[in-house]
Amino acid sequence: MEETSRIQDRFKGAEYMPLLNSLSITMVGQGGIGSPFALALSRAHPAAIFAYEYDIVEEHNLGGQIFSLSDVGEGKAEATQSRLEAYSDYYNFTPLGELLEDSEVTPTIFMCVDSNPARYLAFQTWKKMGETKGWTHEVELDDIKYIMPNVYFDGRLSFNQVEIYCVTEHTAAHHEATNLHLTNNNLTEGECTTKSNPEVGIVTGGLMFTWYRNFLQNVIDANILGVTAKTVPYKWTFNLSNGDINSYGKHANFPSQ
């Protein structure tokens, strides 16, 4: 694969692209949100995508996830890996199996699951990284050193509503207390997306990619210009039934805020 793949032509001129191409991300889940998100992000060729997923493709998954009949019986992460190579000329997607307590994650993580235990475990792993290694990391690009905040994107599926969270150091405690809704006493598996519409996952995955590139543009602007230009609230909801959009929280994306 050549670095100048024509697939990336539509991103030419985007200021955030060199930063995106230099960063690795962690994904948890390759289902209703994760499969469209991985496809969208892979077109931009990030440095690496590390994917936690242990489930296999079943025929009923085709109603709301980006898989084909030929994928049935194959691992979801492995099926996604093949798809990204074929559709995006992208070869840096690594399936990692089930997320465990001692699993490693990158400072940027995307939650694309309908499993409460996995969501809780991933958040705790990401938070522990921030508390022990610091909530930011330095990225040097073209002789410029960027202070990159650790960020946790959390997409939720429901019947007709898109719900996305963008969590940083400044909102981690609030997110855990008010929107994680989990303790060791209520970590139960459940088919919370059984009745979700397939387009909800596609819209959620696409918007998570948009949030990520806006977040990166904010990092660039904050480090170079000291301003915040793109909208990345803490929480954003979109009701697909009536068109209502709500956002909550200010731009808590950078160490100075």
What does this structure look like?
The chain has a single domain, classed as 3-Layer(aba) Sandwich (Rossmann fold), CATH 3.40.50. The chain is 31% helix and 20% strand. The protein contains six helices and ten strands. Strands 3-2-1-4-7-8-9-10 form an eight-stranded mixed sheet, with helices on both faces. A two-stranded antiparallel ribbon has the order 5-6. Helix 3 links the parallel strand 2 and strand 3. The longest helix has 27 residues. The protein starts with 16 loop residues before the first helix and ends in a 9-residue tail after the last strand.
Order of strands in the sheet with the most strands? 3-2-1-4-7-8-9-10
CATH architecture title: 3-Layer(aba) Sandwich
The CATH homologous superfamily: NAD(P)-binding Rossmann-like Domain
Helix content: 25-40%
Structural class, from helix and strand content?
alpha/beta
SSE diagram, text form:
Elements: H1 17-22, E1 24-28, H2 34-42, E2 48-52, H3 76-88, E3 93-95, E4 108-111, H4 116-133, E5 136-141, E6 144-149, E7 151-156, E8 161-167, H5 172-178, H6 198-224, E9 235-239, E10 245-248
Helix pairs in contact: 2-3, 2-6
